[in-house]
Task: inverse folding
């Protein structure tokens, strides 16, 4: 019974739902849960069943499924630490999902009458549950290939929906203004002309694209808490792709910051300071609860790291002394059956030519395989190709005029041939300008920074520097255009030289990215140093043990072979 109580308490401590409770309260609440076991294939409950309590998975797997036409289709897999039966906490009289056990599973169960008393003492549990339910919905739609094998997600949140409404306001007003101007042109300013129709045909698609772009940008911003780190993912459709992160173990402090509008609408910033940089969860709901979750997970992961370090030292010593490593008793000789509700075969889809061409067509920041790549701001692209673009448009207009016989001082075929040749040359000029902009990249890896400058069909210059050699990082924005479009130059001092990331978008975030990678690199080197120190200490213990055994054998007058024979006889 005591062992089960300890298991339940440990599970509750690692569950985000109960992060607002202290250790003493968790031990008290753990005694209210009951332990239940289920076999593979058993339904835990079905849709519309009466709600009788709340479950947490202690060991095994279950699945939330859809029952349609007599078949079960998996919606989500639940593992250790996941909750199910949230209707009991939300006060719903019946179940909203069907849950089926996939493997032999142990769960802990809290009955309804205990839940009502628990919520009276800790009403924030219901808020935590709402956060986790929203996270679960987002998790089903969001792909995170960057997660490690032993990493799982606690919380995923977006910015407050009020920010979505605010971002949609301007394009909607623009469309209304376009509609009013079109009506005025059609009925008052220029009746009988097509000016009003042209304004509407231009304004409506422009405002629709603008609105869709803002919605996508709001939907692509995520703040994530895993069991390893805190992550901020930001994507600006077609232009920007960012992922900032910091390990939970590097936490210094967590706080919240509210504005007057935030107080009214119910959002705030969560400010997280760490040794490897700062991360802000900007304008999120339930900021106080999220800050508390971060604190709890950080404190518990530090305790877990100490235990892991102790266990790692024990394993290293056992290995040095040729002792058997302890195994998991639950895994030895205990095969578990698993029911497959449906098998999903993942296949890698080949990307076509246009996907390859436009995947990073104008993107000024993106990440692939842990390497962050920056390009110069698209303003620099416009600056480099505006003249050939205008000449190209003028050539197109001239070609149309020649084809329609509006220009009669030159023969039509000759004119089209000249215009075609002109357009071909200008098009090559345009392509050259785009490739020249595209080929100037700056990269940030886990170990170094890289500045690559290529000229189309010409020279290539590549400079790099290890992260640990960086002495200082500064950025500057010069002139009204850089201030207006938020781009500038990041200066990185490495020894006696200076690398520059020129004309990059959002230079302050580029600076923060480099600081974060430097912190992560420092943490990696620290871990390597700890492992090396562990190896040295275990070697010392081994040398001490061998020396002690040698002294003991000499004092008793036995040789090493005699000692081994004596040990063998004792074993027999």
Result:
């Amino acid at each position: 019974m005591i062992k089960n109580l300890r298991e339940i308490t440990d599970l509750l401590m690692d569950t985000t739902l109960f992060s607002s409770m202290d250790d003493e309260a968790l031990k008290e609440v753990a005694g209210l849960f009951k332990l239940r076991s289920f076999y593979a294939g058993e339904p835990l409950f079905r849709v519309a069943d009466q709600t009788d309590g709340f479950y947490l998975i202690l060991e095994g797997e279950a699945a939330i499924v859809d029952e349609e036409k007599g078949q079960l289709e998996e919606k989500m897999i639940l593992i250790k630490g996941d909750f199910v039966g949230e209707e009991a906490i939300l006060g719903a009289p019946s179940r909203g999902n069907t849950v089926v056990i996939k493997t032999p599973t142990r769960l802990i169960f809290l009955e309804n009458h205990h839940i009502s008393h628990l919520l009276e003492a800790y009403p924030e549990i219901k808020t935590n549950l709402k956060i986790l339910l929203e996270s679960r919905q987002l998790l089903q739609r969001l792909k995170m290939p960057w997660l490690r094998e032993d990493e799982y997600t606690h919380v995923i949140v977006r910015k407050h929906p009020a920010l979505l409404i605010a971002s949609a306001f301007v394009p909607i007003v623009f469309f209304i203004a376009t509609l009013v101007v079109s009506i005025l042109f059609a009925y008052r300013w220029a009746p009988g002309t097509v000016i009003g129709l042209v304004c509407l045909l231009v304004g409506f698609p422009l405002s629709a694209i603008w609105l869709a772009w803002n919605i996508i940008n709001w939907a692509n911003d995520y703040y994530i808490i895993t069991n390893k780190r805190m992550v901020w993912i930001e994507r600006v459709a077609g232009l920007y792709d960012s992922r900032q992160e910091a390990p939970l173990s590097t936490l210094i402090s967590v706080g919240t910051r509210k504005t007057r509008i935030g107080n009214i609408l119910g959002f705030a910033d969560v400010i997280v300071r760490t040794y490897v940089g700062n991360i802000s969860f900007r304008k999120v709901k339930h900021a106080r609860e999220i800050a508390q979750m971060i604190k709890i997970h950080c404190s518990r992961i530090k305790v877990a790291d100490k235990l892991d370090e102790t266990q790692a030292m024990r394993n290293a010593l056992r290995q040095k002394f040729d002792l058997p490593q302890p195994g998991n008793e639950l895994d030895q000789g205990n095969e578990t059956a698993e029911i497959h509700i449906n098998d999903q075969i993942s296949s890698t889809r080949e990307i076509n030519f246009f996907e390859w061409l436009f995947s990073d067509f104008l993107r000024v920041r993106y990440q692939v395989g842990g390497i962050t790549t920056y390009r110069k701001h698209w303003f620099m692209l416009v600056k480099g190709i505006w003249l050939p673009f205008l000449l190209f448009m003028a050539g197109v207009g001239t070609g149309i005029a020649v084809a329609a016989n509006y220009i009669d001082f030159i023969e039509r075929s000759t004119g089209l041939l000249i215009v075609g040749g002109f357009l071909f040359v200008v098009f090559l000029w345009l392509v050259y300008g785009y490739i020249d902009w595209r080929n100037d990249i700056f990269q940030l890896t886990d170990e170094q920074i890289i500045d690559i400058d290529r000229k189309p069909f010409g020279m290539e210059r590549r400079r790099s520097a290890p992260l640990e050699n960086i002495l200082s990082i500064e950025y500057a924005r010069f002139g009204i255009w850089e201030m207006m479009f938020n781009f500038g130059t990041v200066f990185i001092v490495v020894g006696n030289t200076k690398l520059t990331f020129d004309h990059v978008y959002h230079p302050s975030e580029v600076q923060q990215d480099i600081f974060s990678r430097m912190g992560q690199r420092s943490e990696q080197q620290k871990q390597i140093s700890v492992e090396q120190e562990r190896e040295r200490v275990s070697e010392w213990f081994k040398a001490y043990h061998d020396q002690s055994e040698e002294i003991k054998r000499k004092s008793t007058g036995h040789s090493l072979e005699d000692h081994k024979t004596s040990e063998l006889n004792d074993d027999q």
